[in-house]
Structures are given as C-alpha cells and as structure tokens.
Specification:
The protein is α+β, with helices and mostly antiparallel strands and about 450 residues long. About 45% of the residues lie in helices and about 20% in strands. Bound molecules: zinc ion (ZN).
Length: about 450
C-alpha cells in the first residue's frame, strides 16, 4: 500500500480524490493544546459544472486555486487530530461562477468530519457525560448536544398509534423531580417520557397526541401499586384493563412480613439472656422467614450457627414460637405468597376477605388494605402475561445514565439523550421483536 493509502486507511477516509504526501503529519498546537495536523489535498476533474450543469469538455470548468480548511478528525493517538485539507477551487467559463471541491469527509460549510459526528452519536448512547464526550471527540459540548438533537429527531415519537399493551412508570431525574415514562409492554420500546407525572400532565399528553379511537384500542395498562394512575387510566383508556405489576405485590407483602419480624425483635429485652439469643437468631435468619415454606427442607440436616445441626423447617418453627404475632403473620404471608405463585385468585381473595386474625401486625394490616383496594387489578395480573419488568429495567439504565451524564437542566435535551440511549442500543429481545413503534412512524 502506498503511503497515501495507508494514511487514508488509518484515518478511515474513503474519498479517492483525497491524497496525502509523505511527511504530511506534523505536531502543532491548536487553541494552546498540543495536536496533530495532517495535510492533504482534495482535487478532481469535475464531469460538469455544479452551478449551471454544463458538461465539462475542453476545460469549460477549470481548476482555479485552492482553499484551505481545518477539519476535526477522530483522535488518533492521544491528542486531537486535524486535517488541513487543500480543497480545489473550480471556475466555470460558461456561467462565470466558482466553487470548491466536495468530499464526503465533511458536510458543506462544516469543519467537523462525519466520522467525528458518528463517534459523538455512538458515545452519546453510552452512559457518558457531555463534557467527556466533547473532550474525547475534540469538539465543544454544544456540538455534542447539537448532534444528539439531530440524531434524536428520528427517534422522537410521532404518536401515530398506541400499542395494545402499555406499561406506565416513573423515575427520578433532576434533584427529586419525577418524570413519567410509558412503554410498549410487549416489545419494551420506550414510547415517550414526560417531565412530570401528575394526572393533568399525563391526561393532556394523551388527549393532545392520541385520538379517542386510538386510546380505545389500548387493552391493558400495567402499573405499580404505589402510583395513583388508576383514575387517569380509566378516563383515558376506557376499554383498558389495569394490571398491577406482580413484582410489586410480592414486594409489598415481603416488606410487611420483614417489618413485623423487626418489630418483634425490637420488643425483646437485651438484658435478658434468653431474649438476646432469640434476637440474634431472628436477626440472622431473616431470609428463612421470607422463604416460601415449600422451599424449606424438613429432612435435610445442616449446621446452622446459633442453632446447631437442624433442618430449615424446624428452625423456622422454633422462631415462630417466640411470638404469636410473628406466627400469625407468617401463616398469612405464606398463604398470600402461595396464592400469587399459583395465580390462584380465589385463594388470594379469600385470604383478603376472610376475617383477619387479630394477632396480625399493623404493617400487614395496611398491606392487606392496599391489596383489597386493588383486588380487581390484581386479578388482571393473573390473567395477562404483562408486567413492569421491562420498564423497571429501563429505569435502572436511566439511573446509570443519570449518575454519569448528570446535569441536564433542560428536560427536552435530557429526553433526547434517553431516547438515543435506548434506541441506539436496543436489547437483544427488542432486536428480535423487529419493527418498533418508531420504525413504523
Ligand atoms: Zn457553470
């Protein structure tokens, strides 16, 4: 390979009209920083005049001087790299106009190479701050944001149609502020992000962007129990079934069981040796109390510190005997867990509607109340296969992005960044799904 071709291959320049001489690389400074300058020439014989369109025969269009541009390239090595490109100027005898030679390396009137722009976009999809992307690509943070805005255009929702199954959630963005996010529950595609999550904002968004007919097509909306979206969903999507995310149900009763254990534990007197022993055991084996009973062995003996050689079930039984409240809670907890695992709605509702044992903790009582209130939506979660797993996964990614790419005061810029982040790096599952909402738009 010739020297010129080697340099082109190194810089990823495919334009055949660009040539490099030997000794074209020079060290220098730009804006006080060390950098590398690579000098090249761009020239060719045009087939016709770009201004009037006349065919170039017998030097109708002739070469007339050059123009030097400094083009930012992706960094080669550790310092910024600039291409000093001598661009050919052309003069047309027919129309008396002059113009500069073109190259796919840069867009017209632009000094940042297309490769740098592509690099900016790729890095924006990663969890990296604007300033660090700007530094890595030797451009300004404003340029980075401009590129993100450009690239995000194709991902900005067009609100053409709503999928049949939606999933709602919220996430924190700036200090304490909550944003609202809704996705396609089947594909996991982010449909849009709103800067607020109050009912009015949500209502306005859906009413302005989607017609009633469109909203009537929505069959299910999955939400978590804590969010107060029920009334707004009923209004916006008259035919949709509300599904309470099952993970949150399990989490709720899990927590109340655990809180009950801590309450019982803290009532034990530290001065009493026997109580102290119970305290230590309850503290150490909290996980066994939360486990489904069927997962605990009644035959396999293992060594448990604080207990000795025992089976899992016998340890749990002994701990339950420390306190009647703990025992009553445990029994109810197990029944609830079992009914949810088996998707047995009748068992669940009888747990909730039957007389609650009086020995139960206040935490469990509150949880039961919450469950009772959402009972019809819980039933839907047993019928439909949708859950908030996808959207929760998204939120975790957003949290990572927040941590490193912090400092978005402008919500719209932040929204574009998130859209880019998810659309450019779709999960394997999403790729399998093929056509997304955005492709269709
Ligand atoms: Zn011309």
């Amino acid at each position: 390979m010739s020297c010129s071709n080697s340099i082109k291959s190194l810089l990823d320049i495919q334009d055949p009209n660009v040539i490099f001489d030997e000794d074209c690389v020079e060290e220098g400074t730009y804006k006080g920083k060390r950098c590398k300058y690579i000098s090249g020439k761009l020239t060719y014989t045009p087939t016709h005049c770009v201004k009037c369109g006349i065919k170039n025969t017998d030097f109708t269009v002739y070469k007339n001087g050059t123009q030097l541009s400094r083009i930012t390239l992706p960094i080669t090595g550790i310092n910024p790299t600039y291409l000093l490109l001598q661009k050919q100027r052309f003069m047309c005898q027919a129309c008396q106009s002059s113009y500069t030679a073109k190259t796919p390396i840069v867009q017209r009137n632009c000094f940042i190479s297309q490769n740098v722009k592509a690099q900016v976009i790729l890095k924006s999809a990663e969890a990296q701050s604007l300033t660090s992307i700007a530094r890595d690509c030797s451009v300004s943070p404003a340029t980075v944001q401009r590129q993100i805005n450009q690239a995000a255009k194709q991902f900005i929702p067009h609100y053409k149609a709503l999928p049949k199954h939606l999933s709602f959630d919220e996430f924190k963005y700036a200090k304490g502020e909550m944003a609202f996010e809704y996705i396609n529950a089947e594909s996991g595609d982010i449909l849009d992000i709103l800067d607020r999550r109050d009912n009015l904002t949500i209502k306005n968004h859906f009413i302005v962007n989607y017609s009633l007919t469109d909203r009537q097509h929505v069959e299910t909306v999955t939400i978590d129990m804590n969010a107060g979206y029920v009334s707004v969903i009923k209004e916006l999507f008259p035919r949709a079934k509300i599904i309470i995310d099952r993970f949150h149900l399990v989490q709720l009763i899990n927590r109340s069981m655990n809180k009950c254990r801590i309450q019982v534990m803290n009532q034990l007197r530290m001065s009493n040796g026997d109580d102290m022993k119970k305290y230590r055991r309850l503290k150490r084996y909290w996980k066994l109390l939360l486990k489904k009973r069927s997962y605990l062995s009644s035959v396999e003996y293992k060594y448990y510190p604080l207990f000795g050689q025992r089976t899992g079930q016998s340890i749990v039984d002994e701990m339950l005997n420390y306190d009647p409240v703990l025992k009553a809670n445990y029994e109810l907890y197990q029944k609830l867990m079992e009914s949810m695992a088996n998707k047995d709605f009748e068992a669940l509702s009888s747990c909730l509607t039957n007389a609650v044992p009086s020995a139960i903790s206040n935490y469990m009582r509150t949880s039961l109340k919450t469950l009772r209130k959402h009972l019809p939506y819980i039933e839907n979660s047993f019928i439909y296969p949708y859950n908030n797993g996808r959207i929760e996964g998204n939120n975790n990614k957003i949290k990572v992005l927040n941590r490193v790419a912090y400092g978005y005061r402008n919500f719209q810029n932040y929204r574009k960044r998130i859209l880019l982040h998810f659309k450019l790096k779709p999960s394997v599952k999403q790729q399998e799904q093929g056509q997304s909402h955005f492709d269709a738009a």
